[in-house]
Amino acid sequence: MVRGLVLLPVALASEANPIRRVVTLLQNLQKEIEAEGEKEEKLMEKHQCFCSQNNDGMSQTVERAKAKIVQLTSQVQEFTSAKQKTEAEVVQAKADRAEAEDTMKKQTAQRKKEKAGYDETVGDQRSSIEAVSRAIVVLEKGAASLMQMDSNGLARLRRVALTAKLSSYDKQALTSFLGIQTNNPYGDYQSSSGEITGILKQMKDQMDVDLNGAIKEEEGRVASFKALM
Q1: What b/e readout covers 9-30, taking b as 16+ CB neighbours within 10 angstroms?
Q2: CB 136 within 8 A of CB 200
Q3: Which of 15, 131, 138, 221 is 20 to 30 A from 95 via CA?
Q4: Is residue 27 assigned to a domain?
Q5: Residue 96: helix, strand or coil by DSSP?
Q6: Are 138 and 149 in contact (CB under 8 A)?
Q7: For the chain, how long is the longest CA-to-CA vector?
Q8: What is the model's pLDDT at position 130?
Q9: For the segment 115-159, what is each residue's pLDDT rounded down to a tens digit?
């Protein structure tokens, strides 16, 4: 009984003391707050460490980005300059091509005219050489005149005689032999067939030289035209 009586007042006193309960609650709350504070402090330290490390990394990233921007800006300027240069070259190339096409067109037309003139000249020269060659054959056979030649060949031979590169004496002898009336400063005479044959051979040699010269000249023009094209 005595023991029970002693414990009961203590229990009742504890339960009946609200201040004590508040103090206990506050102490427990203080412990919780301190524990939470320690956790927050640790988290803050980790966060600050992360931010510090991250800031360093971001700073390096920013610096690399700045350097890359400078590099890319320089490359853009180079590419822009190269593009402008290429565009100018394209414009010039088109102008050069148009000029070249115009030149080719004009030179092709000129070449056609030259070729036509060459064909006509060389054809006439070869016909004249053929007429002179036939006349030489006729005279070397012992004919006293060239009347054995066909009329076309004889007519061409007479035209050649008038334009032949001969001395005045030889030209007069040949034209007289062919029955061509000219002013004869050397007086009237009769040329022998042998003399006329020699004159004709001289004419033929010169005509061959002229023909070969015309052919070489044409070959040079053809080579120049091909090179230009």
Answers
A1: eeeeeeeeeeeeeeeeeeeeee
A2: yes
A3: 221
A4: no
A5: helix
A6: yes
A7: 199
A8: 93
A9: 999 999 999 999 999 999 999 998 888 776 777 788 888 889 989
In a domain, 66, yes or no: no
Query: Cα separation of 228 and 211, whole Å?
Result: 26
Structural domain contains residue 48: no
pTM: 0.55
Do the domain assignments include residue 37?
no
pLDDT digits (tens, 9 = 90+) for 188-209: 445 677 888 999 999 999 999 9
Query: In whole angstroms, how large is the CA radius of gyration of the chain?
Result: 62
> Rounded CA gap, 86 and 81, in Å?
9
AA letter at 13: A
Domain residues for the domain of 165 are 126-228
